[in-house]
Amino acid sequence: MEILRNIPKAEVLNLADLVAYADGQVVSKTLVQNSGLGITLFAFAKDEGISTHESKGDAMVVALDGKGRITIDGKDYELVAGDTIVMPANHPHAVYGLEPFKMLLVVAFPEAATNS
What we know:
By secondary structure, the protein is mostly beta strands. It has one helix at about 110-115; strands at about 25-35, 35-45, 50-55, 60-70, 75-80, 85, 95-110. Strands 1, 2, 3, 4, 5, 6 and 7 form a 7-stranded antiparallel β-sheet that branches. Strand 1 (about 25-35) and strand 2 form a beta hairpin. The longest helix has 5 residues, at about 110-115.
């Protein structure tokens, strides 16, 4: 069973190159999605975003390209390539592309902690 998908294996990669910008859109590429873990690449066009929502898992964002805004509990944080922030489980959060913005999202769900 393949767990990690949509990504070449045994090859040096630049994650930002694996997802492309599209005008007026948020583009995503899922690499892992199961009951304990989600890993997704995102490319946000300028002024595009994901509205406020909550997740049952802790969500770590790693900025890969451009500039984005992460809002957690109503507080804004600006990220550029190389920056990382964790959006805690069960806290409202949103993502917005201040300019074209790419990020890696890793969500660890509670089920993962109980199985370790």
